Amino acid sequence: MTEKIPVKHIEPGTQDLEVYGNDSLQSGVTKSVALYSSRTKIYVKKIKGFFQGIRRVSLWMLMIMYFAVCWVSINGQQLVHFDLPARKFHLFGITFWPQDFVLLSLALIICAFGLFFITTLFGRVWCGYTCPQTAWTFIFMWIEEKVEGSRNQRMKLDKAASSFDKFRKKAVKHTLWVLVAFGTGLTFVGYFYPIRELVPDILTFNNLGGWTYFWIGFFTIATYLNAGWVREQVCLYMCPYARFQSVMFDPDTLIVSYDQKRGDPRGSRKRNTEHQKQGLGDCVDCGMCVQVCPTGIDIRDGLQYECIGCALCIDACDSIMEKMDYEPGLISYTTEMRLRGKVSHILRSKSVAYAAVLTVMIISFATLIYTRVPLQIDVIKDRGALFQMTGLGQIENSYELKIMNMSDQDHRFSIAVTGLEGIKITTNREVNVASGEILSLPTSVEADPTKMETSNYTIEFLVQAMGDTELSATSESRFLGTPE
Ligand code: SF4
Ligand code: SF4
Question: Which architecture, in CATH terms, is 375-480?
Answer without folding.
Answer: Sandwich (2.60)
